[in-house]
Design brief:
The protein contains ten helices and no strands. It has about 220 residues and is mainly alpha-helical.
């Protein structure tokens, strides 16, 4: 029964993306591949016959995911980049924490326009999210391509710095943010937020370096 439900949901999702969101015909293959990837994950990990174990719902992940998508969209808008149909679909997945599906869909955007910095940035963020916050080589490559596509876009160094810090590379993340802040225009809307984040990161690094306390 579980397999029938999973297959039915996948078909319903495909129909929704194609009919409601008007996904381009050229992207149907990428959408289908992303949904098949989800079914493969279900086949690998799911235990339909196992009794349920109720627990409190965890809402932090979707909230954080939605905030990251909103922040990236805001930076893209300030850089003059408008979302296309690929990005609309991918961001809908990402907001719900479905980073693997989002990455599969956004591949269509970078294939259609390899110079779309926002698409490469979205791909990088989704790959980091799919890796549970770890900066993988594939995500690093996507961040590099985003920066090459638009060297003036603040998004790639900002989110790469965030990914570096989240992966435990605090000094590298701080250096990335400090360099971005040094070249940021005085009237940049995102400058104040970056200053606050950098200050919090500095405080965290200082706390990590401080001794645990006086020794007996």
């Amino acid at each position: 029964m579980g397999w029938i439900i999973a297959l039915g949901l996948a078909l319903a999702a495909f129909a929704l993306l194609v009919l409601a969101f008007k996904a381009p015909r050229g992207g149907w293959e990428a959408i289908g591949a992303a949904l098949l990837l989800g079914i493969a994950g279900f086949a690998w990990q799911a235990r339909p016959a196992q009794p349920g174990a109720p627990k409190l719902a965890q809402e932090a992940k979707p909230k954080n995911a939605a905030a990251l998508v909103a922040a990236r969209q805001e930076l893209a808008k300030q850089s003059g980049q408008m979302p296309n149909s690929w990005m609309v679909i991918a961001d809908a997945f990402a907001r719900n924490g479905q980073f693997g599906d989002a990455a599969g869909v956004v591949l269509g955007a970078v294939e259609k326009d390899p110079n779309n910095a926002d698409a490469w940035l979205a791909l990088a963020n989704n790959l980091v999210g799919h890796a549970e916050g770890n900066l993988t080589p594939a995500a690093q490559y996507a961040y590099t391509r985003a920066q090459q596509a638009d060297p003036e876009h603040p998004g790639p160094p900002f989110f790469l710095g965030l990914a570096l810090a989240g992966s435990g590379k605090l000094d590298e993340g701080r250096a990335m943010w400090a360099a971005l802040l040094a070249r940021a225009p005085k009237d940049a809307p995102w400058r104040g937020d970056l200053e606050q984040r950098l200050a919090r990161l500095d405080a965290f690094i200082a706390a990590q370096a401080a001794p645990d306390g006086p020794r007996p």
